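Need the bound structure for iron/sulfur cluster, inputs here:
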Amino acid sequence: MKYEGIVYRPPSEAYSLIVQVTIGCAHNTCSFCNMYKDKKFRIRTLKEIDEDLLDARNQYGHVKRIFLADGDSLVLSMDSLKHILLKIKELFPECERVAAYATPKDILRKTKEELKELKSLGLGILYMGIESGSDTILREINKGVISSEIVKAGQKVKDSSIKLSVTFISGIGGKDKWKENALESARIINLINPDYVGLLTLMVEPNTKMNEQVKNGKFKLLNPEEVILETRELVKNIKVDNCIFRSNHASNYFSLGGTFPQDKEKLIGAIDDLLRGKYGYKPENLRRL
Ligand code: SF4
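Answer from helper R.:
Posting the output first, comments after.
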């Protein structure tokens, strides 16, 4: 297997075979993200991808899951995606699920029928980084997409029966927009009704525009208590069915998890216990991305 640079994958793909079908992220300009700053975006050739798959087949006995990296694999054409999924079926008949990151714009470029076709060929789950439901915040972080496009893309994935996992970032609106971040994020979660919601907490990375904004005072970071108050507001306003909620990423100050709607009050209770001081926050030096 040939890997170029640092390869990222969602925590739930920790045991998956990772295959890079693109290098980097086609967008690569979000103000808080430095994941692919060292990579110039390109789509790998089908020959390179086939060679990696063959190589992996020769190395690994049983491959249950495959994750297509890097940042937005759904940017590939339908022909390329179909070729890769068919090759996976041929070489890894035991593979139960193929997964990928997808940006809202990648998803919108595919029709519902095309997504259904990808599902029938083994694409089982898409991970979409939403970050915030607020159009103001999305514009400020240069996400390159507005909330109505995110909602349309999310609903399209759900309609195709591909599982949808979305992530939001607490604190991404800073002190000025924490409430807007919570309320607008809950609003679009309710419109999409994703299968999974993951909540990360903002960590400011060096070499990012956001780092400059923090240094020059234009962006004010939330403290741990403000983060939990924002999370409380988010949880309180989520009204969805059958949606697994997790806030247990290495970046979070505290771990939370449950299924909506049945665990909503339990989640709020755990947050209130935290606010009353029953539990402590994760120390800053133990937080990771
Ligand atoms: S957050 Fe996602 S879309 Fe934005 S630059 Fe990073 S990888 Fe690309």
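Comments: The radius of gyration is 19 Å. The first helix runs from residue 46 to 59.
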